[in-house]
Write a structure and sequence with these properties.
The complex is a heterodimer of chains A (191) and B (220).
Chain A lengths: L12 H4 L8 H21 L2 H17 L10 H20 L9 E3 L12 H11 L2 H11 L5 H8 L3 H18 L15
Chain B lengths: L2 H10 L6 H9 L1 H21 L5 E3 L6 H24 L5 H10 L13 H9 L3 E3 L6 E9 L2 E10 L2 E8 L8 E5 L2 E7 L4 E6 L5 H11 E3 L2
Helix pairs in contact in B: 1-3, 2-3
The chains are: A mainly alpha (191), B alpha+beta (220).
């Protein structure tokens, strides 16, 4: 038992981890970032339920390592990297795409009618179809606000490799947008 | 900077700027147009990624024999569950734990923390040690239960007192929760035996059990 007053676990983190006080600023901060984490995990895993599991596990890991978070303003980026690594662990364990696209179909009812056949709809699906090596840096950049240097550190790639992956990701999406793909500008040998 | 280098930078981040890139774009209409296109596309990418598409796995129709097998297994499982329920012994572990706790009503009323020595004494017979940094163990006794002396502790939580019994000699197959005589309880497997936690109202029983398990050291 800890030498501290009795605490009340919060609904999500605390259900599986005794101790965190739901009123604690850090717990509230983590919870406030959950939608961002879930969105990010969803783009990586391509499956809502898997994304929820990843986020749950990531928040537990984050809580256990909370001493490492010195600056609360860095929490979002810190948590996103934990989510990415948790997804990578899962991906590594399964050694395949978590949800093969040939096994999934769209839930048309869940789509907003105005977008059902619009460019945005097509773009979302095109992004989902990007291989993970392109989708991952794109999600880090677009959703996480990570710079090229930060992405290269996180993915343990050279800056050139990251630039190349981001270039190729967007180049594939140009087609959806009615543009012809640009010639591959990547240097030879880059990712 | 040549066009390939400029397009690589623009394609990777359409809003990136650097003196070299700006100089190149100013003098290259094709790259300037490429940047405009990519910035336009990027705005759509940002919008698109705010909302992942809802995808679901395709359902594959199971062969008919498998459907029959599934139905049969459901029926058998239901019959087995009903049988277990009807034949369950009245002196189940949970029932005995509840009876034991009811037999010591004073345990819930303790208002002062017990000393380290008293906690040690309660634990010694069961061959366990607790990281004694606790400030809120309010009751600690070594009780005779099912042929063994077991630690019977009461810990103060935000939801009120919670009884914890460390059942070293009671193996359980898995977690079991119960509700009996106004008590909520759970028995969870532990490295040696099991741990029972009971409260008189809603509480995070599993959390309490997990916390004890974490802080306990089992002696061989």
């Amino acid at each position: 038992m800890r030498n501290s007053p009795p605490e009340t676990p919060v609904s999500s983190i605390g259900d599986r981890l005794p101790g965190p006080d739901p009123g604690a600023p850090l717990v509230q901060l983590f919870e406030s970032l959950r939608p961002d984490l879930l969105r990010f995990a969803h783009w990586l895993a391509r499956d809502r339920a898997t994304a929820e599991d990843i986020v749950q596990e990531s928040l537990l890991r984050a809580w256990r390592s909370r001493e490492a978070l010195k600056d609360p303003s860095a929490a979002r980026a810190w948590l996103l990297t934990i989510v990415r690594r948790e997804h990578a662990r899962l991906y590594e364990r399964k050694r395949l795409e978590l949800v093969p696209l040939d096994e999934i179909t769209e839930m048309q009812a869940a789509l907003r009618p105005a977008e059902a056949d619009g460019e945005l709809f097509a773009l979302r699906h095109a992004i989902m179809r990007l291989p993970i090596e392109y989708r991952e840096p794109l999600a880090l950049q677009v959703l996480g606000g990570f710079s090229t240097e930060e992405i290269s550190r996180e993915l343990a790639l050279s800056s050139t490799a990251v630039l190349t992956r981001l270039f190729r990701a967007r180049n594939k999406l140009r087609v959806i947008y009615g543009l012809s793909p640009a010639p591959d500008a990547a240097p030879q040998g880059a990712a | 900077m040549n066009c390939d280098a400029a397009r690589l930078l623009i394609g990777a981040d359409p809003h990136a700027t650097s003196p070299e890139l700006e100089a190149h774009v100013q003098g290259c209409a094709a790259c300037a147009r490429f940047r405009e296109e990519m910035r336009d596309l990027d705005a759509h990418i940002h919008r698109a990624m705010q909302d992942p598409p809802q995808l679901a796995r395709k359902r594959r129709a199971a062969p008919q024999w498998r459907q029959w097998a599934l139905a049969a297994s459901v029926v058998l499982a239901t019959l087995a569950a009903v049988g277990v329920w009807l034949l369950r012994p009245n002196d189940s572990l949970a029932h005995e734990v509840v009876q034991h706790v009811q037999g010591e009503p004073e345990s819930w009323l303790a208002a002062q923390q017990v000393s380290t020595a008293e906690i040690d004494k309660a634990l010694r017979g069961a061959g366990v040690q607790l990281d004694l940094t606790s400030t809120h163990i309010m009751y600690a006794q070594s009780c005779f239960f099912r042929g063994h002396y077991v630690p019977h502790l009461v810990v103060q939580t935000a939801q009120g007192p919670a009884t914890v019994m460390i059942l070293r000699h009671q193996q359980v197959a898995g977690r079991a929760s119960f509700h009996e005589a106004g008590l909520e309880g759970v028995i969870v497997p532990a490295p040696h035996g099991s741990i029972a936690v009971l409260t008189r109202g809603p509480a995070n029983l599993d959390g309490i059990a997990a916390e004890f398990e974490h802080d306990m050291r089992w002696q061989q």
